[in-house]
Design brief:
Length: 220
């Protein structure tokens, strides 16, 4: 014997006239969805970020790992914080590399400036200032680009989750309609059988009435 404890929302659905089997089926669907989401997948966050950096789409990543798109979506959903930090770290490393290259160029230029005249020193300083401004501008652009990517990623995840829930609701509605259609079909079959029986009884009554009428009119 199985015992279920309904939540307040499920009790409201039961009072509204919804069948208990439908409510329990919804619970089982949600449980199965969680089981799929928690299924162990041979994929790390660093590996996913590396594939993403190479320009691979989610569908291509799922194909390489031998999993479904829904499993990859569930895996990303439970690790979205780690993925976000990994992407930020990747962008910061790229920015740091750019700054380091700029600093190296600046140091090389500075060593040349020290061997030139005072006027050349002033030109070198101005050049370094422009390089620093350019590097700062590049850093700001990278940070803004990262923020836009984060917003797009969060929006896409939210939309995907909404569509997934809507798909589950539609599947439940289709199942209920199928059950209702089956019940109506069975009821129609019963009515058809009853109609055939009634027609047979009517035919027998008509025959009996005709025979009795002939007997009453013409005698035996």
């Amino acid at each position: 014997m199985w015992t279920y404890q309904l939540t307040a929302e499920q009790l409201e659905r039961l009072r509204a006239g919804e069948k208990l089997d439908d409510i329990l089926k919804d619970c089982e669907s949600v449980k199965e969805e969680k089981d799929v989401s928690n299924k162990k997948i041979d994929l790390t966050v660093d590996e996913y970020v590396e594939m993403h950096k190479k320009g691979m789409s989610d569908a291509e990543v799922a194909q390489v790992k031998g999993i479904t798109n829904q499993q990859l979506y569930s895996w990303k959903y439970f690790r979205k914080g780690h993925i976000k930090r990994a992407l930020e770290q990747e962008a910061q490393q790229e920015i740091a590399s750019t700054l380091e290259e700029s600093e190296t160029q600046a140091m090389s230029q500075e060593s040349i400036v020290t061997e030139e005249t005072q006027s050349d020193d002033d030109k070198g300083i101005e050049w370094l200032k422009r390089e620093a401004i350019h590097a700062h501008k590049l850093l700001t652009e990278k940070e803004q680009e990262l923020e836009q990517l984060q917003e797009l990623f969060e929006t896409a995840m939210a939309e995907n989750e909404r569509l997934h829930k809507e798909n589950i609701l539609l599947e439940n509605q289709v199942q209920r309609l199928r059950e209702a259609n089956q019940e109506l079909t069975e009821r129609n079959d019963r009515y058809s059988d009853n109609c055939i029986n009634l027609q047979r009884e009517l035919k027998a009554l008509r025959l009996y009435t005709l025979q009795k009428l002939q007997k009453d009119v013409y005698g035996a």
